[in-house]
Amino acid sequence: PDGDGAPPDVQSYREADASPSPVTDEMLAEAAQWGALTAACVPESGDHAARRLRQLALSPGVAIAIVPGELPADFKRSQAAPNVLLAQPVDPKDRASLAPWAQLAWVKADNLQAFADVTRTLEIPVVAVRPLGEPLPIAEARAACDTLQRDLAPLGQFAGYVV
Q: Three-state DSSP class for 10?
């Protein structure tokens, strides 16, 4: 929510080079209208996740799908979501191996040493993610994102920074 308690519209996010989170189907429709790009979470697993990815691929506003669950063994990105980058969440404390479909590692950056240790081992682009305690107005979230990028600068450059 923004200062007056109402959530900002998608055009406000686009103008700030930001993306809303979480993303609703209504926001995806609005993002497509304004040419805004979003990262959408796919909370489902298995065949349900593959079905959701096919739905998200129809929206021109979806650039990244974050898939924390499993996808079917016969999953083919080229058939389900050829125009969407698939990100797998990585918790540096867990060190789970990446799935073969993962094109981006969506890595928690709340502990800089753990983040550095795990990102050194990854061979795909890394998006650094620092969860916020609560939703912030766009300008404050943008400043928090800039802080994240500054904090990680000694470790290198990453594919993206998300708060």
A: helix
Give the single-character DSSP code of 103: S
Structure tokens that stand for 93 in this block = 């404390």
Q: Note the pLDDT tens digit of each residue in 23-59.
A: 667 777 776 676 677 889 999 999 999 999 999 999 8
Which residues, including other chains, have CB under 8 Å from residue 14's CB and lie 6 or more apart? Answer: 31, 34, 35, 36
Mean pLDDT of 130-136: 86
**Element (H or E) spanning 123, and its range?**
none
- Smallest CA-to-CA distance from 123 within 104, 144, 142 is with 104
Q: Greatest CA span in the chain, whole angstroms?
A: 47
